[in-house]
Design goal:
By secondary structure, the protein is mainly α. It folds into two domains: 130 residues; 40 residues. The protein is 67% helix and 0% strand. The chain is built from six helices and no strands. The protein is extended.
């Protein structure tokens, strides 16, 4: 009989969240590919090549670091924690490959049939007028979040880059000093005050 702990069930929900994040990253790259250059706006093959290369790199970094973090639990002496780490570390790369292989076709199908935002079944297809109206590409237009980053956050970070670098270095030194003082517990931790009536 196979042992399937509750921690491994939790890992499935964790991976569902990671998969949703990967889907957002891929679809955002697909949407942004419409605004990068006029010559590829009408060519779905070139748009998908751009979106795929961009999204695959971003997802590969996050999936790799997450999988390595989970695999680190394989060194735990506790069997449930060890099995949780190995199981989670294995399904993170599997999730990555599934998203990378399935999202290109899903993105193109979604854009081709122009489903309404509130419906994902064939009854929710947009009318011909809506398709024609929304098929005109908006060249070079940034979204709301991109506009905030482009107009406000990026200039601020660029102007304050030396201050941010200095504060990061100070924070690193402080944390390194405290890290050297860490060690194993020398006495049992008191969860209840010795003067408490229960004691």
């Amino acid at each position: 009989m196979t042992y399937f702990s509750s921690l491994q069930v939790i890992a499935i929900y964790i991976v569902l969240g990671i998969a949703a994040d990967d889907i957002f990253v891929f679809y955002d790259a697909w949407r942004q590919s419409k605004n990068i250059a006029p010559e590829i706006i009408t060519d779905n093959h070139r748009r998908m090549a751009y979106a795929w290369r961009r999204a695959v790199k971003a997802m590969a970094v996050t999936s790799t670091t997450t999988a390595v973090a989970f695999f680190a639990n394989a060194f735990s002496p506790l069997m449930p924690i060890r099995s949780f780490g190995i199981f989670s570390g294995v399904i993170i790369p599997l999730n990555y490959f599934l998203v990378v292989m399935m999202m290109p076709s899903a993105s193109i199908i979604y854009e081709k049939y122009k489903f309404k935002a509130w419906c994902c079944c064939p009854c929710g297809l947009r009318s011909e007028e809506e398709v024609k109206e929304n098929s005109k590409p908006e060249k070079g237009k940034l979204g709301k979040i991109e506009t905030i980053f482009n107009d406000k956050i990026n200039p601020f970070v660029f102007k304050a880059r030396y201050v941010i670098l200095f504060l990061s270095l100070v924070w690193f030194v402080i944390t390194a000093v405290f890290a050297t003082k860490m060690g194993p517990m020398t006495k049992a931790e008191d969860f209840i005050d010795p003067d408490h009536p229960i004691m």
